[in-house]
Design a protein that fits this description.
three-stranded antiparallel beta sheet; 45% helix
């Protein structure tokens, strides 16, 4: 266990290195921070921190920089989440309040996160598997052609065209729409198959084939893996940190193009807690020089998706964590009100 004084020295090293981009020496630390001890004591503390793997010396006669292990201890023990100022909160709310639909919400969120953190922003679309049905609309396009529109509690809209086995009248369509919504509106997707399985029996024999076709299309829509969608923005921000990547940013850019990699980085969508993965904690080798800060968002208590940022390990963790948390909270409010 490190002493409180050595934890303070580590905190000061992280803060200075993030702020200045320069390796930190003992003299600079004692000048910039009220550590209450001499430079010789700070040098001794830095030697212990280096021996235990929390800081490293990039080259001879240079100061020290934090390692992945040092950043991890900083995040776990030393870094509070920096709250957003009142003007920042108002700016977030005003920017997101103008969204007209779910795509617009996600697009605005990506741009906002990238601007606030000056990192790469990643936002997952709300997961269908964690959504509830708000409404099912059925529209007649021709005597034997119907459009099914599924609207979720997160504002997501899925449309399907259905070719019916026989003509289906407006009265029958209205009856099906009413019966369907009375059973599934406000219910989780997982419950829907059980709720509608006997619905064809409520209709005349000549209409049951069409009712079954509509229901099978609805169920296919519920289980399709369309929820694994992401939007990414701010990739150009990485060019500001070229020297933070040991050789080249190319592996990072390649990793960001892999949607499966990004989904794994963000973590399980149902988990609403904040996650910070630092450097080699990222399983994908191309992202070993980056950190990922992510959190769940959603309406109500359960997260329906994740959002976060990817940037170099030399990151303003308190500020980034504060921005990510604040944006997630506002997006959740918008989904709850939509």
């Amino acid at each position: 266990m490190l002493s409180e004084r050595r934890l303070e020295v580590l905190r000061a090293i992280v803060q200075d290195y993030v702020g200045t981009e320069e390796p930190v020496g003992s003299k600079a630390l004692t000048e910039r921070h009220r550590l209450g001890v001499s430079p010789a004591t700070v040098r001794n503390d830095m030697a212990v921190l280096e021996d235990e793997g929390y800081i490293a010396q990039p080259h001879t006669s240079a100061g020290r920089i934090p390692t992945d292990k040092g950043y991890r201890l900083f995040v776990d023990k030393l870094a509070g989440v920096k709250p957003m100022t009142a003007p920042e909160r108002r700016a977030i709310q005003n920017f997101l309040d103008g969204a007209v639909d779910l795509d617009d919400v996600v697009g605005r969120t990506v741009r906002l996160l990238a601007q606030l953190t000056r990192q790469v922003a990643v936002v997952q679309y709300p997961s269908l598997t964690r959504s509830t049905v708000r409404h099912v609309e059925l529209l007649s396009l021709a005597p034997a052609r119907v459009m099914l529109v599924l609207i979720t509690d997160t504002g997501r809209v899925e449309q399907r065209m259905i070719n019916c086995p026989a003509p289906f009248g407006e009265a029958s369509l209205a009856d099906l729409r009413a019966r369907l919504n009375s059973r599934v509106a406000g219910r989780p997707f997982a419950d829907v198959p059980q709720l509608v399985q006997d619905l064809p029996d409520a209709f005349e024999a000549e209409d049951r084939g069409t009712v079954s076709t509509v229901l099978s299309t609805l169920l296919e829509t519920l289980v399709e893996e369309t929820e694994e969608r992401l939007m990414i923005g701010g990739t150009a921000n990485l060019t500001r940190f070229g020297h933070d990547f040991p050789l080249t940013i190319r592996p990072v850019l390649e990793a960001l193009e892999e949607q499966v990699v990004l989904l794994k980085l963000l973590g399980e969508a149902g988990d609403s807690s904040m996650t910070v993965r630092i450097g080699h904690e990222n399983a994908y080798e191309g992202l070993n020089s980056t950190s990922v800060v992510s959190v769940g968002y959603g309406s109500g208590g359960e997260a329906v998706a994740k959002l976060g940022v990817v940037g170099p390990t030399r990151m303003d963790y308190p500020g980034t964590m504060g921005a990510v948390r604040a944006v997630a909270r506002y997006v959740g409010q918008i989904l709850a009100e939509s």
